[in-house]
Please model this.
Amino acid sequence: MEKTESHAEHLHRDEKSAKMGMWLFLLTELLLFTGLFLMYSVYRYLNTADFHRAGLETHTLFGTVNTMVLLTSSLTMVLSIAAIQRGRKWLSVGFLSSTILLGLAFLVIKLFEWSLEINEGLFPGSQVLLSKPNGEILFFGLYYTMTGLHGLHVLAGMIVLIFMLVFMLRDKITKDDYIKLENAGLYWHLVDIIWIFLFPLFYLIN
Amino acid sequence: MSEITNQVRVGETKAHAEPISYGKYVLVWLGLIALTCTTAAVAGIDLAAFTLVAALLIAVTKASMVVNIFMHIKFEDKIFKVFLGIAGFTIFVIFTLTFMDVFFRR
Model:
């Protein structure tokens, strides 16, 4: 009896539900960031001129390069899934590894960018920042909170993808069973989408 | 019983429908990169109030390309679109109500 049950379970791997669960989780993540975007919008509306002035101080080049890095990592992510769908394990492993490395590149660039800003004295609670008008202090508070929380998500995504890499190497993710990789990919894309909105709000104010 | 098995099978094949070609993904990526260059270039031009609107429109376009193609929503069952629609509507309501307060507070 037990044996047939486990056999049946194997047959009835419910991938649609797995994906649905993942999407519901992603929507909670979306609402988390919505709260921050809401705060940004209200404060920007109330401090338009200050946000403008503060926005000029972020480094557009860093932001643009990082956008490209993250978009490219999203491409390698889908290519990794496309490869495993066709049963090409090593190609898929290669694309997945590239995705993880691009995530790392994103964080390293972010590190340089933040170091530069911290050296300029632009960090929460610094004398330089506290001498500026309230709106600019708010801008940089939001900047560090939102890009910081996003950075943590990139880090979390990389850890999940490293697990996926191990699963793939151990043949736990295969041509016939790759829902784990798909769901990990969905998470990675969500992180990309959040960055797509952070980018114009913090870097493209001219 | 057999009906149930059948249904599950149908669901499974649907989840694994026709894989999208590598080329199509690369094309979408090229589009995303092009839009990023556009938005960065447009930001330098002074379009007054339209600057923010243009930047957000481009961001929404990019996000919908990622959601539809990379995240496969275009090819999923309707229920996934309903999920997203409800989430989008909720966010819209939250923003509208908050800004009603911000605009009309005395």
Summary: Confidence is low (pLDDT under 50) at residues 1-15 of chain B. Chain B is about 80% helix and 0% strand. Chain B touches chain A through 50 residues (CB under 8 Å). The two ends of chain B are 65 Å apart (CA to CA).
